[in-house]
Specification:
- The chain is mainly alpha-helical and about 325 residues long.
- It has three domains: about 5-90, 2-Layer Sandwich (Ribosomal Protein S8, Chain: A, domain 1), CATH 3.30.1370.10; about 105-225, Hypothetical protein af1432, CATH 1.10.3210; about 235-305, GMP Synthetase, Chain A, domain 3, CATH 3.30.300.20.
- It is about 55% helix and about 10% strand.
- The protein has twelve helices and eight strands.
- The chain has helices at about 15-20, 25-35, 55-70, 75-105, 110-120, 130-150, 155-160, 175-185, 190-200, 210-225, 235-250, 275-295; strands at about 5-10, 40, 45-50, 125, 130, 255-260, 265-270, 300-305.
- The strands form three sheets. Strands 1-3-2 form a three-stranded antiparallel beta sheet, with helices on one face.
Length: about 325
């Protein structure tokens, strides 16, 4: 999953960098120990960088450092006080964000810890798509499709809302977020059907019922719609290059072009080496190779083009 692991804290002046470091590095060590982050103080003008895989800890550190800089009193005791206040503030934000999401979807009887973990997704993102907003959107979409099919709308909304709950704790556990999320939901009292839908929303679990497919489809719709996700230019270009390289690896392929931000790949083949039947098989083989090797959101359409040209001269 592509997401930010750093945050930048602006400083009113570079003089504060020395005060944040402290004598013999005492202040910076106290800050890193209290928040669990790494502080990067370099030549960047009037700014420092916070690095941490846990987005909640990163936000706590950002708030704490901003408060210390604004206050001007930077010493060990003050650092501990400010970090504790920042922890309470972030905890409150997570709780309120989770409660609002649950309220918006009309879901009841949710374990308070599950609500808090859901709210913490406010600070996580995938390809710059906020995961809390994505979860709410998936809940709405799953509910709409369930209504069209005559299925249980509230259950679909519930499973859709919590489908990415594993991302709230996946930095603390081994495994993929779908399995982690299903285990967390099971532990906090969610129904077996909801837990199954969470585990299966990336089609990692075989079988499943209508609810599993509804949540998986809603997740694809939310993440793959145009404009939903953004990524850095370097990773974007590399992803397109990787798709084209996979295609060019097959025999008979002349050229390959990734289109629509990697949603489609067009493959030009040599007509004297590939016939129509082979072109159909080639598209399937390339699609399977992309599934196995490439990283992408949504789906990738593979189009194989075989051109036959006939020419003659009128004399």
């Amino acid at each position: 999953m592509h997401e930010r692991t750093i945050a930048v804290v602006p400083l009113p002046s570079d003089d504060l960098k020395g005060r944040l470091i402290g004598r013999e590095g005492r202040n910076i060590r106290a800050l890193e120990a209290a928040t669990g982050i790494d502080m990067i103080i370099d030549d960047t003008q009037e700014a420092i960088t916070i690095s941490c895989f846990n987005p909640v800890r990163r936000e706590i550190a950002r708030l704490a450092i901003s408060a210390l800089v604004a206050d001007g009193r930077i010493h060990r005791t003050r650092i501990e006080e400010v970090v504790k206040k920042a922890e309470k503030d972030v905890e409150k934000v997570c709780k309120e964000a989770g409660e609002q999401a649950v309220f918006d979807l009309g879901i009841h009887r949710v374990h308070p810890e599950l609500v808090r973990q859901l709210g913490s997704l406010k600070f996580r993102s995938s390809y710059a798509q906020n995961l809390l907003l994505h979860s709410v959107e998936v809940g709405y979409l799953a509910g709409l499709m369930a209504a069209e099919l005559g299925a249980n709308v509230k259950l679909a909304r519930r499973a859709g809302l919590f489908h990415d709950i594993g991302h709230a704790v996946d930095h603390e556990h081994e495994g993929n977020h779908a399995e982690i999320g299903a285990a967390l939901a099971r532990k906090l009292g969610e129904s077996p059907r909801v837990c199954q839908a969470i585990a299966a929303h990336h089609s990692d679990v075989a079988g499943g019922g209508v609810l599993d497919h509804l949540v998986a489809a809603a997740n694809q719709l939310s993440s793959a719609r145009p404009g939903a996700r953004r990524e850095q230019l370097a990773s974007y270009v590399k992803r397109l290059e990787d798709l084209e390289a996979i295609c060019r690896r097959f025999g008979g392929v002349e050229k390959a072009f990734a289109l629509q931000a990697g949603r489609e790949v067009r493959v030009m083949v040599q007509n004297d080496q590939i016939d129509d039947a082979q072109a159909m098989m080639l598209s399937k083989d390339i699609a399977r190779a992309i599934e196995a090797e490439a990283s992408y959101a949504g789906q990738v359409r593979v189009v194989v083009l075989r051109e036959t040209r006939a020419s003659d001269y009128a004399r």
